[in-house]
Design goal:
single chain, 168 residues, mainly alpha, Rna Polymerase Sigma Factor, Chain: A, 2 domains, elongated
């Protein structure tokens, strides 16, 4: 490949390099800039080894960079996936206060649904077929619609509550 072709291909496939380095960084906990540098190195290796006519450059590049980052991670003893954290099953007093404050800042509709979820599935299981073992968004939606909430109010409340949980 000529220098001009390489520059053109780099401009075209730079988002792919960022995507692959972001995925690798989220899995191993290393800085994305460091992994992006390695992805750029793998890009240069791919341009020297690419044989036109065998496949598309993008397909070849994807496999070269992805496999190159995997091998680089193995050589540097990077963990494949971050260790899972233990779920919180008990509330200490400070966490309970945080949740109480969080509930107080929700809208009235969101607070009602959140309280329904926190207090347990008994209220929701009563209207279901009895085979439900966990609270699902669909079960909550059906419950709220049966209570007389409209579709718009129900969907907006569930959307707002989902955003509030992500901020928690």
């Amino acid at each position: 490949m000529t220098k001009k072709q390489i520059e053109t291909m780099f401009d075209r496939y730079q988002p792919l390099l960022h995507k692959l380095s972001h995925q690798c960084a989220s899995r191993c906990g290393r800085p994305e800039d460091e992994i992006y540098q390695q992805a750029c190195y793998e890009f240069m290796q791919a341009t020297t080894k690419f044989k036109p006519g065998r496949c598309e450059f993008g397909t070849y590049l994807y496999s070269c960079v992805r496999n190159g980052l995997i091998m680089w991670g193995k050589e540097n003893d990077l963990p494949i996936d971050p260790p899972l954290t233990e779920p919180i099953t008990t509330l200490d007093p400070s966490r309970a206060m945080d949740i109480k404050d969080w509930l107080a800042n929700l809208s009235e509709e969101c607070r009602e649904v959140a309280t329904l979820i926190i207090n347990g599935p008994a209220e929701i299981l009563e209207f279901g077929s009895g085979s439900l073992h966990k609270i699902s968004a669909r079960a909550i939606q059906d419950y709220l619609l049966d209570k007389g909430w409209g579709w718009v109010k129900t969907r907006k409340t569930l959307h707002d509550l989902k955003e509030a949980v992500q901020c928690l």
